Amino acid sequence: NRGDEDGKPITLKADATILATGGFSADRTDTSLIRQYVPALASRPTTNGAFATGDGIKMARKIGVKLVDMDKVQLHPTGFIDPKKPADPTKFLGPEALRASGGILLNVRGERFVNELDLRSVVSQAIISEGDVYPSSDGAFFAFCILNEAARTLFGPNALGFYWKRQGLFQYAADMDELAKIIGCPIDTLTQSLSTYEKLSTSKAYCAVTGKAVFPCVIGTTGPYYVAAITPTIHYTM
Questions:
Q1: Distance between CA 49 and CA 154 in Å, rounded?
Q2: Distances from the Cα of 11 to the Cαs of 6, 16, 200, in angstroms?
Q3: DSSP symbol at 5
Q4: Among the options 28, 44, 61, 76, which is catalytic?
Q5: CB atoms within 10 A of CB 109
Q6: Torsion-angle region of residue 185: left (phi > 0), alpha (psi -120 to 50) or beta?
Q7: How many whole angstroms separate alpha carbon 234 and alpha carbon 79?
Q8: Which residue of 79, 82, 108, 206 is 20 to 30 Å from 132, comparing CA positions?
Q9: How far apart are the C-alpha atoms of 47 and 54, rounded to whole Å?
Q10: What's the predicted TM-score (pTM) here?
Q11: Active-site residue among 2, 28, 35, 99?
Q12: Using one digit for the tens of pLDDT, what is the confidence trace for 51-69?
């Protein structure tokens, strides 16, 4: 109760009340709402800061407020892994526009494995299913997000520069050899993957492996490339 001019508590009656105290994705305690309602995601990083601990929701529950849909927690497939601090539980969000501009996802073997433009939930689960864990990341499943000059232009050079130059989240690869070294995959596999994708994205043909049928730009065997490690990350606790 806020209190009136005399400091006495007052009661405001309403048909509904909006509780705007923030989410709970950063609560790592044993009593966290994530552990209670979505335990499978308890170890996942989040795009939210350390302040998102659900204290307001816990207080409301304590006085008898009924909670609903607490399991509606969304993973975003592209939380950036900072190579300087890979185990940081808070990740910089890699916006949807990275993939909408033509960015593709590769696993550690240099293979495409998902329609990059599919639902967040589908892309996130595909990354997890690949089973690749980033070193020293506290178990973060990951993939590589690859842009070329065409994708960089669509995304916006200044926008990419922010993530690359200012935040240090992208690496630059002048050609296929450098790209293979960054990924740590065989050059033959990478060449096959990008050659196939170049043909698909040029002809805008249906990809039988991933179901992709929309290609924002052509990406192929000609560099340069811009490379970031990304991991499925809790974005919304809805």
A1: 29
A2: 14, 14, 64
A3: T
A4: 76
A5: 15
A6: beta
A7: 9
A8: 206
A9: 15
A10: 0.91
A11: 99
A12: 999 999 999 999 999 999 9
